[in-house]
Amino acid sequence: MSEAPARSCSRDFPGTIEGAEDAESWVAREASALGLGPDAEFAINLCLEELFLNAVQHGRANRATISICAEPDGARVEFADDGEAFDPTKAPAKQIHARTEDFDIGGYGAGLMHKFSRRMSYRRSEGMNRLVLEFDAG
Amino acid sequence: MDMTVSQAGGEITRVVLDGRFDIQGAQEVDARFGELAEGSKALIVDLAKVSFIASLGVRTLMLSAKTLMRRGADMAVCGANENVEKVLRSTGFNEVAGLYPDFDSAARTLKERLDAFASRKA
């Protein structure tokens, strides 16, 4: 009897920039291996870079866990970190609206995650931020 | 990420990026972009060979655009694939730097602006 291919994976990372780089390489590799399609891979990589950097740079997280699970119509990804409580689903979707040099350099992540994911849900439990993102295959 | 810089048509500086504009990619090119933004009259960033961009890559482009605008210089981006362009448009980056399908169309537009600026000064 042949074994079914792995359809989910999970890994812990330290809450550092080096950890974020490692996570980015791991996510790129795993999302590709799950065969979700190029748009889903792009979206997952984009959202997880944003989440990891935000947790490390603003939330002062010491560690983070990323879980990716392939589903029939896409993927379900959980990002958990032990940083300060932060709910990205409630953060404003910032955007530059006019040609001006007084635009902000950062703060666009929440808007990008809304744009590139199908659904986001957040809960705080046991001192951890737990964000679940769903992505369409493709 | 590989970064190639050349002069195209005198006052236009062309930057060709090749690779992933992720955390590592942004760190590799950030300082060079800072120098170019301080010294260029018109900067065109060719993203045709960039397969991915995220938070730090967008930040590098935005910092350059802001520096160039403050100096009265211009910036454009060309060749972005569908997802990269979606990222840039989602942030509104296209409001501060034009997005063009290819280098030639970007260069044509920036050259017209440089010529118009020069004729106003004359």
SSE layout:
The complex is a heterodimer of chains A (138) and B (122).
Chain A: E1 8-14, H1 17-33, H2 38-57, E2 63-71, E3 74-81, H3 109-116, E4 119-125, E5 128-136
Antiparallel strand pairs in A: 1-2, 2-3, 3-5, 4-5
Chain B: E1 2-8, E2 12-21, H1 23-39, E3 42-53, H2 55-70, E4 74-78, H3 82-91, E5 98-100, H4 103-121
Parallel strand pairs in B: 2-3, 3-4, 4-5
Antiparallel strand pairs in B: 1-2
Helix pairs in contact in B: 1-2
Characteristics of this structure?
heterodimer; A: 138 residues; alpha+beta; Heat Shock Protein 90; five-stranded antiparallel sheet; 3 helices; B: 122 residues; alpha/beta; Transcription Regulator spoIIAA; five-stranded mixed sheet; 4 helices; 51% helix; globular
Describe this protein's structure.
The complex is a heterodimer of chains A (138) and B (122). Chain A is an alpha+beta fold and 138 residues long. Helices cover 33% and strands 29% of the residues of chain A. Chain A has three helices and five strands. In chain A, strands 1-2-3-5-4 form a five-stranded antiparallel sheet, covered by helices on one side. In chain A, helix 1 runs antiparallel to helix 2 (38-57) and helix 2 packs antiparallel against helix 3 (109-116). The model of chain A has no long low-confidence stretch (mean pLDDT 93). Chain B is of the alpha/beta class. Chain B has a single domain, classed as Transcription Regulator spoIIAA (2-Layer Sandwich), CATH 3.30.750.24. In chain B, 51% of the residues lie in helices and 30% in strands. Chain B has helices spanning 23-39, 55-70, 82-91, 103-121, and strands spanning 2-8, 12-21, 42-53, 74-78, 98-100. Chain B has a five-stranded mixed sheet. At the A-B interface, helix 1, helix 2 and helix 3 of A face helix 2 and helix 3 of B.
